[in-house]
Amino acid sequence: MPARSGRWVRLGAAALLVLAGVPTIAQVAAHALDVQGNDRLARLFGGQTQQERLRISQAMAAGTGKPLPPATRALVRGAAVRDPLSADPYFLLGASRAAEGDRRSGAALVGLAVRRDPRFLPARYWQIDDDARGNRVERATAGVLRAIDLDPDNNQQTVPMLVRLTKVPASWPLIRAALPGASTWRDYYYEKLVAAQVEPSIVFNAIDAARAASGKAPAVQQQGALLQAMVAKGDFDRAYTAWLGWLPQEALGKIAYLYDGGFTGSPGALPFNWQMPTEGDGTAAIEPSHGLRFDYSPEANIALARQVALIPPGQYRLTSFSKLDQERESDTPASVSWQIACLPKGNVIANLALPNAIDLRGVATTFTVGADCTAQAVMLMGTSSEFPVRVGGYVRQVKIEKATK
User: Fold this and answer.
1) Residue 192 in contact with residue 156, Cβ under 8 Å?
2) Residue 258's pLDDT band (boundaries 50, 70, 90)?
3) Contact 146, 31 (CB under 8 A)
4) Any alpha helices (H) in 33-135, and if so which ranges?
5) Burial (0-12, 13-18, 19+ Cβ within 10 Å), 378
6) Is this prediction's pTM over 0.70?
7) How far apart are CA 300 and CA 221, in angstroms?
8) Does 214 have pLDDT greater than 70?
9) What span, in angstroms and rounded, lies between the C-alpha atoms of 178 and 209?
10) Average pLDDT, the chain
11) Helices (H) and strands (E) in the chain — how many of each?
């Protein structure tokens, strides 16, 4: 369809070659030669000088580069006559013919090379590039998937090619079908998808397909990266639904307006679980037997703990139980408090300071969630002061409940 083809062109003609950060076909072919090319060259061109063999090797690695010099071409044709079942001469002659401008006959010759040796990787990578140049997305996708199977040690170069293709809808059926059985590269593919800032809905669909077929969720780090990308785009409901689907069965009974409000270290990815800094002016960590441990030097505003929540419109009560390592001076303002802010605007709808007490003590406040507040950030905030004094302590529990009249 024209729209699809146009988008593929905008992604870049010969997209696999020009994408920043993705290896060129020449680089990938050079790796393939390291794996399987040197012995082949020695057998096929063993009678030639080392310099001539080097020129042939470089021509193979270039793949889509310059035409072969006349002397090298003659050697290659001679090799094809001596060993008509060898893939190497056909690949070299085909790549050279394409570089001269006759891409159709060049592709046919490279195809003969693949037919003679389906595992000859330089020829396969050349075909992937040729399909990309011709906007043949399905064929390019199939080629990359086959190369991943044939060259598993080269996933760091081939998987980014697949990520690039994932941006084009025509690639999805093949990729979705491959993911359930892709145990050796699936998590790396998820990682690269998120890092490449591919549209979150595309990533979600890919993960969902693999999960449905294999029952395996992505690693928590990949889950969190994807969910946070979806939340950043305002796709709160679908992100939360995905997060619920990835939770282990035993954790589903702990779902409330606020997840793991008792700070037991319940499983689950960010941002619907607690996110805490581990260094800097403020740090926090969950100690399951004591709760949330925090230490804060009030020199900068910082969220000591943060979780995204989806609280429906209505009246609620926020309650917290905590204790400090030591009481602050009576004239020193409270520097640590719970705040709830609407997303994405950030307007604060609740503020609850921790009590100034070294024994466990509870405090509470009521707040209202408006109809325009579709998602919220619940944060234990450290607020800077003119005369900073270190504050440390524990939050044993925080909870949000429907307010009773």
Assistant:
1) no
2) very high
3) no
4) 38-44, 50-62, 70-82, 88-99, 103-116, 121-133
5) buried
6) no
7) 28
8) no
9) 10
10) 81
11) 16, 9
- In the structure encoding, which two tokens stand for residue 297, read together? 């030097």
Please report the pLDDT score of residue 140 as a whole number: 92
Predicted local distance difference test score (pLDDT) of residue 40: 58
- Check pLDDT > 60 for residue 25: no
DSSP helix/strand/coil, 382? strand
Does position 34 have pLDDT exceeding 80, yes or no? no
Q: Whose structure tokens read 């057998």?
A: 43
Place of tokens 């070294």: 358
185 with 214: CB under 8 angstroms?
A: no
Q: Which residues lie closer than 8 Å to 288 by C-beta, 6 or more apart?
A: 263, 264, 265
Give the whole-angstrom CA distance, residue 337 versus residue 379: 8
Residue with tokens 């209505």: 314
Query: How far is residue 328's CA from residue 310's CA, in Å, rounded to a whole number?
Result: 34
- On whether the CB atoms of residues 400 and 317 are closer than 8 A, the answer is yes
Whole-angstrom distance, CA of residue 160 vs CA of residue 196? 9
291-296 sheet: strands from edge to edge: 282-287, 291-296, 391-402, 314-324, 361-369
Neighbours of 81 (CB within 10 A): 8
DSSP-assigned letter for residue 256: S
Taking 50 as the threshold, does the pLDDT of residue 233 lie above it?
yes
Cβ distance 110 to 142 under 8 Å? no
Query: pLDDT (tens digit, 9 = 90+) per residue, 294-313?
Result: 999 878 899 999 999 999 99
- More confident site: 266 or 214: 266
Distance CA 222, CA 35 (A): 31
| Three-class SS state of 67 | coil
Peptide bond preceding 344: is omega within 30 degrees of 0, i.e. cis?
yes
- 12 pLDDT higher than 50: no
Find where tokens 């581990």 sit.
278
Instruction: Answer for the pair 307, 341: CB distance below 8 angstroms, yes or no.
Output: no
